[in-house]
Amino acid sequence: MFWNKAMETISAGDLEALQLKRLKWTLRQTQQVSLYQKKMKEAGITPDDIRSLDDLQKIPFTTKKDLQAGYPFGLLAVPKREIVRIHTTSGTTGKPTVVGYTRADLGNWSELIARNMVMVGLTDEDTFQNAVNYGLFTGGLGFHYGAERVGMTVVPSATGNTKRQIEMIEDFGVTAIHCTPSYAMHLAEVAESMGAELATLKTGIFGAEPWSESMRAELEKRLGLTAYDSYGLSEMYGPGVAFECRERDGLHIWHDSYLVEIIDPVTGEALGPGERGELVITPLVKEAMPLLRYRTGDVTMLMEDECPCGRGQKIARITGRSDDMLVIRGINVFPSQIEHVLLSLPEVGEQFMVYIDRVKHLDEMTIEVEMSKASFSGELQDLARVQRHVAGALHSTLGLRTTVKLVEPGALPRFEGKARRVVDRRGAI
Ligand SMILES: [Zn+2]
């Protein structure tokens, strides 16, 4: 099923012509922004120097720091009266970025979300529970308006009161749900404790944090649904940038709206299909906040194979954000790798917390893990064996020695939005 078949299956030649036309429009739009006037001047180029898609390489990158420096409205390319809504990034590092939307931006955004939802088989017959934060976070209103555009019955449940969320799923016959993967796991736990079967639920859309294939298997088994990965970032409207189709092998990114590059994060050089690097996006239809070559910090690659569904080139699932990446004694560790290991071990649950300390100039990582209900016997020799097993499995995947502390089932915090599983106590280096 397609929402916009002509655009979703556009031929390579037509796509290239459309991208170039839209890139030129975007370049003109960015000339309303002093940051871009300055960047182009420094690079010694004008918008007229960009005559082909390859010329994109001449344009300097835009970074998160550039956006932070423009706080609050420095990146906007239209007069304030044309802005009909603002969202912000979560701002976990420094000032948040303010993202403005014109009426046309909101229309484009809901169009992309509609494409994603129809791509996984959702229709106006579906009832959709949107269990994410509805505030400045883009996940709430973004999916809300996309689902309404498809004609679904939307339940704007937001987060919180998990028992009530489960009652709503059962009472309203909810067929599709959107939330973070960590909250989905919490929903599964609470549903199990209530004896709720969630029989109508068939589709789960999970995003806003990286999650592993073993997490997918676990969520599908416990919630009785098919789980799809959703990718987006507030700087590009929000969710809806890329999404899995029913093949669930990579995410379709909407090339008519986003010009995609993968670069070596250190040298900035372009990488080819199959080579993993940092995703760089130039949005092609954004009016209020156009960006050029925005460095997302997200690690992925362009996929080589054509998808049987007929849509355009996919990107691989995001391995992690550079923001999430931990450097422990010089080794790169993503929390999603820890999750992956824990889910493969039956003795422990999927909940964990990571603490990082510096002891005598050395980084020490401590991982608190809940025992699984089945293995929670409380016998000391048993605990020691499980602890060794978990530490060994983590060591072989991460290449790093860690301290594992086992805790009772239910002892660790649950998260309604993005999980905050890492506490870095190393202080300034
Ligand atoms: Zn596909």
From TrEMBL:
Q: Does the keyword Ligase apply?
A: yes
Which sequence ranges are marked TM in the entry?
none
Out of the domains of life, which is the source?
Archaea
Q: Per the database entry, which stretches of residues form a coiled coil? A: none
InterPro entries linked = Adenylate-forming_Reductase (IPR051414), AMP-bd_C_sf (IPR045851), AMP-dep_Lig_C (IPR028154), AMP-dep_synth/lig_dom (IPR000873), ANL_N_sf (IPR042099), PA_CoA_ligase (IPR011880)
List, in alphabetical order, the GO biological process terms annotated in this UniProt record: phenylacetate catabolic process
- The AMP-dependent synthetase/ligase domain extends over 77-281
- Record pathway: Aromatic compound metabolism
Please state every residue range assigned to the domain named AMP-dependent ligase C-terminal: 330-426
GO-annotated molecular function? nucleotide binding; phenylacetate-CoA ligase activity
The family database entries (SUPFAM superfamilies) matched by this protein are listed as: Acetyl-CoA synthetase-like (SSF56801)
Task: Print the keywords alphabetically.
Answer: Ligase, Nucleotide-binding, Phosphopantetheine, Phosphoprotein
Its quaternary organisation is: Monomer.
Query: Which PANTHER family does the record match to this protein?
Result: ENZYME, PUTATIVE (JCVI)-RELATED, PHENYLACETATE-COENZYME A LIGASE
Protein name from the UniProt record: Phenylacetate--CoA ligase
Native species of this protein? Methanoculleus taiwanensis
Q: Taxonomic lineage per UniProt?
A: Archaea, Methanobacteriati, Methanobacteriota, Stenosarchaea group, Methanomicrobia
